[in-house]
Every structure is written in C-alpha cells, then in structure tokens.
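FORM 7B: Structural annotation worksheet

SECTION A. Query
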Amino acid sequence: MSIESVRAFFAEKAPDIAVIESTMSSATVTLAAEAYGVEPARIAKTLSLRIGERVVLIVAAGTSRMDNKKVKAQFGGKPKMLGVDEVAEITGHEVGGVCPFGLKTPLPVYCDISLKAFDVVVPAAGSTHSAVRITPERMAELTSAEWVDVCEVRPAQEAPTYSSSS
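SECTION B. Predicted structure
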C-alpha cells in the first residue's frame, strides 16, 4: 500500500511531483543521501511519535536531533517513538519509508524549522527505495503541517550512523 498511497496522494494533490525510486535502500538518512545524491541534512526524516494519547509526525532535516525538552514544551507531554509494528499499522508506511504523504490514518504533521535552511528536501515516499524532491514550504502546504521548533541542528559529520551491531 505505501508507495501506491503516496503516488495516489501526489496524483490528486500535486501531479507535478513524481515519486522517484532507487535500487539502493534509502532506509536511513545516510543511505538516502547516497541514493539520491544529496547531503544528509537535505533528507527530510519523518519521526512518528506518541505524546500522551496523541500520535504525531514531525518532519525534520536529516542531521537534526529531536530535543525532548522542546517537544514537551510544544506538545505538553513526553515524546515516545512508535514501535515498528505501530508505525506500519498507523501510518501505512514501513520504517525507513515513513513520510507525511498518503497516510493510512490522518495524523497531525509538523515540520521542524530545520527544513527551512533548504530550497529542496528529499523525504521518503512510502518505501525504503522511494522519495520525492520537494520544497519544504510545499511539503508543509500539501500536508497541512504546522511549523515548529523542536530539533537541534547538528553538523553533518555528527549525523548518526547505524549498524546492525548497535
């Protein structure tokens, strides 16, 4: 369902935006940056959080880090990342392909101001091998997102790396 629901979302709301696919996995910020030929900060990562009884999506620059204190101040509760099964069940997208487009369940979307540093960002498009190129402003407009300041921006060399042994 994922990539198809994202394609349907863009066909209806922004037919000028095409879903791009890569043979390389884009499941992490580092892999996505390599797959789509951009610096890691331009990857618009989508965080799926539960805050109290609410589930929200926060889209932020790839090298940013969520600031729990800022999130708590903004949303009035302590954030908790959704589990892998919950993410797929609620968003309709697999981890590594989560995005604010074509959601299974309507969710509030928030764009962190870290995205405003870029003319174009590259969020996932429902699978670990798909993405779109979009301006942060257009992404916020299409998803009815509210702009928030809930992340700390880190230099690219400090971007987290992941390995199967961690």
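SECTION C. Observations
Strands lie at 20-21, 43-51, 54-61, 64-66, 79-81, 109-112, 122-123, 130-131, 146-148, 151-153. The first helix runs from residue 2 to 13.

SECTION D. Sign-off
Analyst initials: ____
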